[in-house]
Amino acid sequence: MADSEDLAGGDPSAYQAAESQGGSHAARLNSLRAAVLGANDGIVSTAGIVIGVAGATLVPFAILTAGIAGLTAGALSMAVGEYVSVSAQRDTEKALLDKERRELAEMPEEELAELAGLYEAKGLDADLALQVATQLHAHDALAAHAETELGIDPENLTSPWIAAASSAVSFTIGSVLPLLAIMLAPTSLKVLITVVAVAAALVLTGYLSARAGGTSHTRSIFRNVAGGLLAMGVTYWIGRLVGHSLG
To answer: Would you list the domain boundaries of the chain?
Structure first.
């Protein structure tokens, strides 16, 4: 009966205040995406590598070397990929903002009419839309156009350096678990313990992802765990095949 519960918990004012202090949903979702993607990639990628090597050999040094190499390469790859992606996005947003600044400087009346038209399209009547647009133009014309027309907050452009560092750190944190699990486990139980530890970690990241995003816990956890088990199963049997063929 969760749907029938009072969303505000009996205090709508406090609920609205907390929601407004939460900041941009888009920004939070992008941060969540980067953190969860990085952690999941670290868990699954490193687990796949060490499980694959364990399928071929249980020599600790070989597993450790492969795990550290995978962790390092993966963290750097995530950092570079996120930096390039966010830099391209930021450059595009800056170009759009520069274009908007020029339009406001060269054709302010037309831009005012355009903004009023956008608000009218959202449901305001023509007179009210023009009043709103006029007041917003007087306050901060660029911000009004950027947010309404372009969907960009000019004061909150994503930093590619922060995105790169966050991805690298989250990938590294995720990678540590399967590496520690397979190195600390007894030789006969290395694969089993690693699989259990990775599945538990993916349950946790799936739950946290769903909780932060307000989505179904069951669906998120199932996707995480199923994907991780599939990756480990494939790499393990490839490792066994290669190890028996070339060993």
So the answer is: 26-246
